UniProtKB/TrEMBL annotation:
InterPro entries: Flavoprotein-like_sf, RNR_NrdI. PANTHER family: PROTEIN NRDI. Signal peptide: none annotated. It comes from the Bacteria. NCBIfam families: PRK02551.1. One of its GO terms (molecular function) is FMN binding. Pfam families: Flavodoxin_NdrI. The lineage of its organism: Bacteria, Bacillati, Bacillota, Bacilli, Lactobacillales. This is Flavoprotein NrdI.
């Protein structure tokens, strides 16, 4: 399987930290079994150039919201908007194959709500979630979710 491609954004470093650990976990899996994919991750920030995506990718987005609960009243996305704009750029949304959300369960209904909103807006499945920097069990679970989803995408082609 081709490397799994990830685009992510990280304001305070938690997502970056998790993606680094996930990338190391994927490499270890690949070294043990060459059929299992590595991960190639790219961080999107306000300084990023918007480029056309041509291959399937996942996005990893933490949650920063202001306002309501997103269910019976609105919320406003803060800080992470540039990732959404990147996905919205050109035909990039067509290549998005899954969304992974992170957040803090103390936010109750708003837990991972940005990822859920991206999944709906860009018509891609919400494939996994984890809290804050995650724990080793999350790396295994999220990696398996990515591999499973990528197999579906490859079969669909
Ligand atoms: C101002 C602020 C607002 C946040 N709002 C939410 C929220 O609405 N829902 C949620 O699940 N987590 C929320 N979080 C938690 C972050 O999503 C969580 O800390 C995440 O790991 C941050 O990722 P990053 O360090 O990569 O930026 C909020 C955190 C901050 C500082």
């Amino acid at each position: 399987m081709q490397p799994l491609r990830i685009l992510f954004i990280s304001i305070e470093g938690n997502t970056r930290n998790f993606v680094e650990h996930l990338t190391a976990y994927a490499l270890a899996q690949h070294e043990a079994n060459a059929d299992l994919p590595t991960i190639e991750a790219t961080e999107i920030s306000d300084a990023s150039d918007f480029t056309p995506e041509t291959t399937p990718y996942f996005c990893f987005v933490p949650t920063y919201l202001n306002g309501g609960n997103g269910i019976d009243n609105g919320v406003k996305e803060l800080m992470t908007n540039v990732l959404g704009e990147y996905i919205d750029f050109g035909a990039n949304a067509q290549h998005l194959v899954g969304v992974v959300g992170s957040g803090n369960r103390n936010f109750n209904e708003q837990y991972c709500l940005t990822a859920k909103r991206y999944a709906k807006k860009f018509d891609a499945p919400f494939v996994a979630n984890y809290e804050l920097r995650g724990v080793p069990a999350d790396e295994k679970r999220v990696y398996q979710a990515l591999v499973t989803r990528m197999k579906e995408v490859v079969t669909d082609d």
